[in-house]
Amino acid sequence: MQFSNVTAVAKANVYFDGKVVSHSILFADGSKKTLGLIYPGTYHFGTDAAERMEITDGTCEVTLDGQTEKKTYASGTFFDVPAKSGFTISVSEGICQYVCSFLS
Predict the structure, then answer these.
(1) What is the pLDDT of residues 60-76, one digit of tens each?
(2) Computed from CA positions of residues 64, 77, 75, 46, in that sequence, does the dihedral angle turn out positive or negative?
(3) Dihedral, CA atoms, 25, 97, 103, 67, nearest 10 degrees?
(4) Whole-number Å distance between alpha carbons of 26 and 72
(5) Kindly report the CA angle at 68 between 66 and 72, in degrees rounded to 5?
């Protein structure tokens, strides 16, 4: 996946003592995505805006807030998270890479 004509924000978003790291990219139309890495572990994130998490490398397991079912996502798949919600994501081995799109 490649993006053209964007502004990259050099300062990283660092979570969970560096186990989840992302960089923001800004588009001319005002939209934003983050590109990130998730190291092995289990992490919970809250959302303000609705999000689409596209997995670009590796594998993770995700449980959306309010649900009990854990689903597995691998490279080439995605999951959507509603606004004002959250999700728990687990990576058991390797590094999971993702692109997060903020949906309107």
Answers:
(1) 999 999 999 999 999 99
(2) negative
(3) -150
(4) 29
(5) 110
Strands (DSSP E) contained in 1-104 are: 6-8, 13-15, 20-27, 32-38, 41-46, 50-57, 59-64, 71-74, 78-81, 86-91, 96-103
Per-residue model confidence (pLDDT) at position 71: 98
Domain count, the chain: 1
Residues 29, 27: Cα–Cα separation, whole Å: 5
Q: Is residue 57 part of a domain?
A: yes
pTM of the model: 0.92
User: Under 8 Å CB-to-CB from 87, ≥6 apart: which residues?
Assistant: 44, 45, 47, 62, 63, 64, 65, 79, 81
Domain CATH for 52 = 2.60.120.10
Matching residue, tokens 């807030």: 65
